[in-house]
NB-ARC domain-containing protein (Rubroshorea leprosula), 867 residues
Amino acid sequence: MAEIATLILEFIKCVARPTRSCVDNHRNFKENAKDLGDKLSTLNCKKVDVENQLLNEVCSEKQAKKEVEKWVQDVVKINAEIQDVLKRLHSASYFSRARLGKLARKKIDVLDAILKRGSFPEGLVVDKPAIALPLPVENLEGEDSVKKKIWGYLTGNEVRMIGVCGIGGVGKTTIMKHIHNELLKGSRFDKVIWATVSYPLNVVRLRHEIAEAMNEKLQKDDHDDQRHASKLMHLMGKGKYVLILDDVWERFTLGCVGIPPPTAENGCKLVITSRKVDVCKSLGCEIVKVSPLSKEESLKLFSDKVGSDILQVPEEIWKAMVEECAGLPLAIVVIAGSMKGVTDVHEWRHALKELREHVRATAEGSEDEIFERLKFSYDCLQDSNIQNCFLSCSLYAEDYQISKDDLVEQWIDEGFIKESRSRRAMLDEGRTMLNKLENSCLLEKAYSEDTIKMHDVVRDMALRISPQFMVKACMGLTEIPDECEWTKNLEKVSLMDNEISDIPLNMCPNCPILNTLMLQRNSKLTQIPNCFFANMQGIKLLNLSGTSIESLPHSICNLENLTTLLLQNCTQLKHVPCLAKLKALKKLDLCEAGIEVAPEGIDMLVNLQYLDLRCPELVELPTQILSNLSHLQHLTIYSNSTTLKIKGEEVRGLKKLETFQAELYDLQHFNNYVKSNHFKRLSNYQLVVGQVDCTFNPFINNFSKEISLGEREVGGEDSVVLPNDVEELWINRCRKFRSLSDIYSLQKTTELRRCVVTECEEIGCVVDMVTSSSSFINNLEALYLDKLPNLSVVVNVEGVEATSPHIFSNLKSFGMWRCSRMKRLFPIELLQGLQNLEKIILQDCQQMEEIIGNGIICCGSIMLMNA
Ligand SMILES: *[C@@H]1O[C@H](CO)[C@@H](O)[C@H](O)[C@H]1NC(C)=O
Ligand SMILES: *[C@@H]1O[C@H](CO)[C@@H](O)[C@H](O)[C@H]1NC(C)=O
Ligand SMILES: *[C@@H]1O[C@H](CO)[C@@H](O)[C@H](O)[C@H]1NC(C)=O
Ligand SMILES: *[C@@H]1O[C@H](CO)[C@@H](O)[C@H](O)[C@H]1NC(C)=O
Ligand SMILES: *[C@@H]1O[C@H](CO)[C@@H](O)[C@H](O)[C@H]1NC(C)=O
Ligand SMILES: *[C@@H]1O[C@H](CO)[C@@H](O)[C@H](O)[C@H]1NC(C)=O
Ligand SMILES: *[C@@H]1O[C@H](CO)[C@@H](O)[C@H](O)[C@H]1NC(C)=O
């Protein structure tokens, strides 16, 4: 931090310094010096162009070429040299001038050469080489000898293909993840590729997965099998690979997938993990068998997982419990998870008895062994709601990284979370349940904090105790399962993430007790037959999000028990039949759907709690609809059309509203709405007046308390009235204010965190300390200014005797673009307040360019990052 303060200080000193300090009369000398300065400016401008272009082009797949990086470094280096020369030129005595003039000429030639090297006709970026990331993995307990054996085969010359076998839950995948992560650290192989295969084998998906693991892409819509296989063959043929295929169930041939066989010549290796020895043998693998843990290893793993509470439990009880786990690491981890936090001896004794009863019926070495032990942990959950929450995770594809937010939302929709007066309370309860499942190890961590995963063996168990589920998620299906598979006893069907393109016209499955149907992300699905839902009267949750349907079938109109209808991102959807009979509907999500008119009968949906009408093409919403929906907790409305606007009085009566997003009719309606104090009920809002034309995004879901003003007169005492708890403010093309201090009601706000001001003609400074107090800006964390032609200072302190030490003391991020009159950034008085500043971006502020351009820092753009 200190560094950045000095940088700014330096910077301001530079700006303040008279630019023509040295006047010289030695013409030649003067010209040389000027040429040198000019040349350096040109070079620095070029550097800025290159850097800007890089900012645009570098992404997850592209990186800057080495020569470009080198060039940029060279420019930085030469700058230091030239600054030095310029300094000496400026202070040169008469006698040293001739020599220095020569030096200047020489340096000009050097600059010319660098400038010439700075054109990159072939482009600035190249594809990134494949970078595999380490996989998140538990500590490995025991299994040392197995690991050594596999490692020996991988590093030796005898064995090319290795089959790691053992029953589910014995730790095959964990061992391989450890080996994978170690392989990444070494350079034995050019490519370390991990792909999960699962059941049933989907060759097309497997090819994509392998390609993606190499940071390559196969044409998505190309269905020419042969071409795909040979493309993959070609990609894998470059360099020495080690390929790990996890969880293989069926035989296949390498050539058919597009995997070049590992040979002594190419030095490649293939490892397969499988529960089936014969599958590994059929591929010709050397078998490595993973055995259960030894007694000591089991005891250690179990006590590590339970933690220090284990000390309070009589040894003979917990050791007996570990014995029942049969050395299966997964069972040990999950059962230990269930017992974590339990200290009562009675409870432990009871659990031991229960576990023994589960185990009694299982035969050693069969899949039942693990099943019954995991089932024990499931039974330990006791609460049927949390058990249901757990089971519903199995509706996702194997190995799927489930978004925590989506999952909790789904549990609410499925009715597993107690009805509560507020959505926030329900979201909190959902998170609590999620944490419970994670703590009990029935769900496990995924790559990112926001997602969670289900172990494939745990998922098998969940599906085994839910015969009333039909789950075919992400299996590459192009057709919907045959009608005879839709049996009468089905309760939940998940067909998400497939390629189902159409449904036979007369298909009308008879599933009277089906309550959940997940068809989301079948992006090729364009039509659902009209009668499709006729015999699914019990359906409560229907997710058709991300399909390409153009209309909703009529049979939907009669689903009187439907509580949740999700149509997010159905961009082709134009026709929705009358929904008036869907009296039970609580949630209707049409975010980014293609409809132009609001669904008929929406005003009859009096139980609606959640309504998302952010439909880019929606033209208008009949008035009076909203005021009838008195249970609404979540209301988001947005459209591309300028006619979809809400009058404040329509929502003022909604007493349960928590989240509200809309464009208000005009400034007057907005002001009246704010004055009604209805906003005080809200935990999130995003209110817009006028067209906001910048990178403002109304389709993100995590907005806090935001106001956006476009093309309004916002200054003066009787103009805009802002809620005093506003946290984020966007001002675009607004008039009648010379500084934010002129927006009278802004001065009464206390929570402002982010502020973005763009394209306002008049604003001369952001905060005017001369005319008003500036406390409203004290909490500000980010300030972004763009295209403000009259802006000349950020804070006006002219003539102010003492400035508040708090001003900008929370500012972390500051950005300024295209503010052509801007001369100085922060007055020196404020520097000590800027202790939290991490990032400054300045770009295209010409006046600064002129002053700085005279050989002090560089031209136009500086980007200081100190994150
Ligand atoms: C419905 O599908 C959407 C789109 O993929 C997804 O984001 C959402 O979580 C799903 N909701 C439920 C309840 O299934
Ligand atoms: C919307 O659907 C399209 C394809 O139908 C997909 O490419 C896009 O990612 C989806 N957007 C979201 C936000 O899910
Ligand atoms: C609708 O829900 C009610 C109450 O849960 C139930 O009694 C009724 O049987 C359901 N209707 C159908 C057709 O499943
Ligand atoms: C909606 O509310 C208005 C008055 O507030 C009322 O006249 C109308 O009948 C209501 N419509 C429904 C469907 O309840
Ligand atoms: C929104 O409107 C603009 C211009 O009015 C148009 O260019 C853009 O395609 C529209 N976007 C959508 C999603 O309709
Ligand atoms: C909201 O989500 C977007 C995209 O996921 C992210 O970039 C942004 O930082 C988030 N904003 C907040 C305030 O969390
Ligand atoms: C530019 O800003 C100055 C200082 O705030 C102000 O006095 C002046 O009126 C502004 N000019 C225009 C054209 O708005």
Remarks:
- Residues 1-26, 849-867 have pLDDT under 50 and may be disordered.
- Residues 537-538, 561 surround 2-acetamido-2-deoxy-beta-D-glucopyranose (ligand 3) (CB under 6 Å).
- Residues 407 and 471 are 16 Å apart (CA to CA).
